[in-house]
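Anyone else keep sequences and structure tokens together like this?

Example one:
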Amino acid sequence: MTAAADSHAAAEPSGRLAHVDALRGFALFGILIVNIGVFSSPFYGAGITDPAYSRPLDVVVRWVIAWLFETKFYLLFSFLFGYSFTLQMAAAERSQAAFAPRFLRRLAGLALLGAAHAVLFYQGDILLTYSLLGLGLLCCRRMAPKRALRAALWLIVLASVAWAILGALSFLDPVPAGYQALYKAEALASIEAYRGTIATTIAQHIQELTASVWFTVLFVQGPFVFAMFLAGYALGRREALANPWRQPRVLGLLCALGLLPGLAGSALYATSSLPFAGGAWELPGLAADLLTAPLLSMSYAAAFLLALRTRALGFVGVWLAPAGRMALTNYLMQSVVCAFLFTGWGLRLFASVSPLAATGIAVAIFAAQLPLSAWWLRRHAYGPVEWFLRALTIGTLPPWRRARAQ
């Protein structure tokens, strides 16, 4: 193992694993690349041509993001949520505190933050879903790791099959001829709302939440989020990420096994979502992606950990770990910045930025978060939102400033 990997494998004095924080930061970047598409365009993920940005370059950028980013990184983030759940269980056991009340308070905090986040800044919020599905994870806290992995696998397969059946039925019941015209009318209304005031922005969030977003989050993402919760819990019980480089061949095998089917399923999904593919292919493409996306997420995680083991890329973990350590703060901060850029909260650039430019903005936002996170954590024990959530979890105020080295 290289010195770079050794530095990441070591736990910090707080008991955190720097490479796990770096992996969380990596997932946070992928989530932002996807989310900014929702912030910047009413046609994102709709399978309908954006009349303002329909050049070949625009189509290629959307396809690449759908292929490599969509549905992959929220799964990785969900896996890490399940893994962290076992770390919280261990911390409660060490402090001889009752775990269930602590975790329920934590879920209540996530629900509060998620509801405010969804209504005020980003209707695609995942935190409220985490808080609801976290109740199920709490009920599984005594489940054997093997059983949890089997349950995760069955959940992924059954949910994917259900969407495949719906996709097959969609060929029998094609999309109505007037669907595109109706969607374009709704898109124009959303442009007017998001370019309006803070009040019209919030009203549009509420309308989209009640019309379609909650269905997508709970019934499309939900089963797969919970499956990754269980997978993370199973590997956390086995302490698989305590030192993942003990068996580098296992990481290589995981990367190899998941890469080709994952890329193939995602390519089908990305192509089926293009306007020329026709609406009937969207659900079959989605089903193929939902089945194979966990494999690609697994490959991403394994490849990332292997990269940290090299001298050439070991520094990436050093950059990403602080951002991952305060991932919740950064996730919400990303939404606040994007809301300022694209909606009535600020510059009102909604529907006026190309897919490539939006991706560039996402990269710039995340690049700014890296040094800002490192600066903050040199002075503070937790990120601001993490501090609030920890205070709620343990029922007392944790230290705000980082203790100075003696």
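And example two:
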Amino acid sequence: MTTASHTPAPGPLGGVRVVELAGIGPGPFAAMLLADLGADVVRVDRPGGSGLAINPAYDITNRNKRSVIVDLKSPDGPACVLDLAARADILIEGYRPGVAERLGVGPEACRARNPKLVYGRMTGWGQEGPLADRAGHDIAYIALTGTLGMIGDADQPPAVPANLVGDYAGGSLYLVVGVLAALHHARVTGTGQVVDAAIVDGAAHLASMIHGMFAAGGWQDRRGANLLDGGCPYYGTYETADGKAMAVGALEPQFYAEFLDLLGIEGHADSRKDIARWGELREAVAERFKSRTRDEWAAVFEGSDACVAPVLSLGEAPHHPHLAARGTFTDHGGITQPAPAPRFSATPTGVRTGPARPGADTPDVARDWDVPDLMKGQE
């Protein structure tokens, strides 16, 4: 659907057009992922910005996008967005239920202009239900789903996993899966649809395996008592002599044996399946890790199959030899950032442009998408 004046970007979604109604959190991240994959993402910013407390030059969730400014509360604003929607494959919005409709850019209005449009809605609580109209943030969404309650030590309140589990895993990634599935359906049938991506739904869905284990009696409904939540002494983190940490995931027998050997506590071979001895094993493992620094232990386990790794900081991670060799992180415009993922053999992706500055691409988008009214008020 692109014009000759705008060459499709490399990536499997080259030629796909996306309109993103500016917001914060999971919506922008989902749009970034689509942009990383090659879609032509036009972010419709509002006058005055999004309210995110970050310099737009560093907001990498706006990389690989283009930005226009439209005041949806002005008389001509909704018409500009509808003109963009008429030329788009996907639209993403993250307002509370009913807000897009009140602004004149809801699903019915957009799809009246473009029946093939996939209209992606990103919210915390979903489009319906008793809490649909309530404010919320990541931590509240994962709290109600039971996901937050699984994370952390047994004798402490749940640990806060930044906003990764709710906003981005339960929200953005499910929205992307949803709009791409709906895009496939639209291309097969000629009919678009609305995708209701709620963080509560996605965060609950992430725990599917654990719900199965719980139903089978293989998971206790409390923190720090299970194989994968820190209750198991050979699946968790341990402090080192320098106050840093090592991560241990030696679940299988062969990995556990190598772990004990390299750690120097071979006498605990029989403790693996004996839960009554897990406390003793945990103390022994903790004592050994406290005897050396993190980097010393990293050297001990380097090249082994013990499934042990140093816990690195955000600043350290890009310099790890494996991540550096794979190019897991990249530098663009002076900002070190995660490279696009996943990877494709025939349609490679990359960081093409830095964060889109609000409104900076209005003339180009007006031309490429043939929406001249975007230029009103820009001269």
